[in-house]
Model the fold of this input.
Amino acid sequence: MAFISGPATAEAPVKLGILTDMSSLYADNGGEGSIIAAEMAVEDSGNTVLGRSIQIVAADHQNKVDVGSAITRRWLENENVEVIVDVPNSAVALAVQGITRERKKIFLATGAATSRLTGDECSNTGIHWTYDTYALAHGATKAISQLGTKTWFFLSADYSLGSQLELESRKVIESTGGRILGAVKHPLGTTDLSSFLLQAQASNADVIALADAGGDFINAVKQAHEFGILGSQRFAGLIVFIADVHNLGLQSAQGLLLSSAFYWDMTDEARAWSKRFIARTHKVPTMIHAGTYGAVMHFLKAAGAAGTLDGPAVAAKMREMPVNDLMTKGGKIRRDGRLVRDMYLFQVKSPEESKYAFDYYKLLATIPKGEAFRPMDEGGCPLVQN
Done:
């Protein structure tokens, strides 16, 4: 599908590619909402950049590396796409990062989580925008450990995202004197998690940490509720989106601790933008949607300031310019491509605490940007080492 914004000009339009999940477990977190968020950014930028109109093209990567890679190569080599945005699947995102690095094109990873994007797989033209496994795992795991939790069991998705979330969380648990009683990995997109949940229950761990996302996370919480596990053991979501909480309902999700880069009801600016988004989609915006809006805005500003669409030149200008938008204030893009900003610790409200539509979170703590993300010299990024 394609969406065209702005008036026609003599030159060909500047193409932005939204590569996302349209039909599977991340569709509510990214999907159509990411396309709408990008459209809003284009409109708010005046519909043009460098005197040219802007065209948004979109595709479904189907959570398959080969599909995502083929789309990326076609866009860059044959269809003159200048920047690729979103990609909510860590394995696909790593492949996209490799291709865009090779082609010297911009990749704005607003939906992917793996911290390898700013580690060993970092790119001169890759910007990891919204969140990552380090920030999410450290935020949630530290907070729960401070509540007196001593024992943990991991239920993780069997691909890059799950492995990274579990690895980062294990480091925090071990550093705080906690114990990990066991771990099990489940296939991506599996519908029956009963055997994995029963193993977690049998461990008698204080906390069952869910290192999965989207539909996998929702299925795990729903099935845990059906089996009666939620009443005796706490569940911690290491990567939770507000769309997940909405789909679960507060009755099932109440009390869950999670970290996030954005909540629609935190500030007047966030509320105003979110109301526009909700009016167009009838859905509450996730941090991926807000991140996509901010990343596209920043790219267009930087391209205008640089006076070119050359990937390395625009990426350098993006790093040079501070990031200030509805979810980030005084943000800075580091040499490794990581956008550093504050992160937040939330607890899901009970049904009784919620007073209006999408009133789901209460803020427990702000994690300052200097603490929220992995120190740049610890990631193994060749750009930093060199």
